[in-house]
Design brief:
This protein has 216 residues and is of the alpha/beta class. It has 2 domains: 78 residues; 124 residues, Glutaredoxin. The chain has 4 helices and 7 strands, in the order αβββαβαβββα. A 7-stranded mixed β-sheet has the order 2-1-5-4-3-6-7, with helices on one face. The longest helix is centred in the first third of the chain and has 77 residues. The termini are far apart.
Length: 216
């Protein structure tokens, strides 16, 4: 009887040992599970960080490329191939049917303005050029309508008539002047040499600056 009790006691004493071992196993599993979750979270964090870095790199590259393209275009517009050279031959035909040839205006400064009826900013500078033409009779103003239609030109003249000769190009081309955008204005001195150019709508102050260059 005593031996049975002792055996049972020993067996009972063995059970808590199994429970502790089981508890240790559970704690080990919990730790492993936590480590696994932490590893997954770290992996997600790394992936997100990599994605952010990649997106940032793409954005910066795009900005740099756009800046480079703008710089190259700006340089081309600021320094057209005709600067310092005799103005290429160009003629326009007015609504009345008269031809005006720029190359025949030597001896008088010329303001040659490239425009089009569909160019909104051309309308903005129209009054500036009209006022300057009226105030400076010693300077010839010519408006060269390009990449336009006959109906577009006629409608524009009906709404915003030029006070100086203007019309479609009938001889020469805007490409020969290196025009890359409208409006574009070229300032030609009395010797027929292109002294300066400006791309974009002119205001009166800017126009006066360029007029001073060809009035010399």
């Amino acid at each position: 009887m005593g031996s049975r009790l002792r055996g049972a006691f020993r067996a009972d004493r063995g059970r808590p040992q199994d429970s502790r071992a089981h508890g240790q196993t559970e704690r080990t599993a919990v730790r492993a599970n936590r480590c696994g979750k932490r590893a997954r979270l770290d992996s997600i964090h790394v992936n997100r960080k990599s994605a952010v870095i990649g997106a940032t790199a793409i954005i910066l590259s795009s900005v740099l490329l756009l800046s480079l393209a703008w710089g190259l275009q700006h340089a081309a517009l600021a320094n057209p191939p005709v600067l310092g050279k005799v103005a290429p031959k160009l003629a326009i035909q007015t609504a009345a049917g008269d031809q005006v040839r720029v190359w025949e205006m030597h001896g008088k400064p010329v303001v040659l303005n490239f425009w089009a009826s569909w160019c909104a900013t051309c309308i903005e500078e129209g009054q500036v050029l009209a006022d300057a033409a009226s105030a400076n009779p010693n300077v010839a103003y010519v408006g060269a309508d390009n990449q336009d239609t006959a109906s577009g030109f006629a409608a524009f003249e009906a709404r915003h008539p030029h006070v100086y000769p203007a019309g479609p190009i009938v001889a020469g081309s805007y490409q020969s002047y290196g025009v890359a955008g409208l409006p574009a204005t070229f300032f030609i001195d009395r010797n027929g040499v292109v002294v300066a150019s400006f791309t974009g709508p002119l205001d009166s102050r800017t126009l006066d600056h360029y007029l001073a260059l060809i009035a010399q």
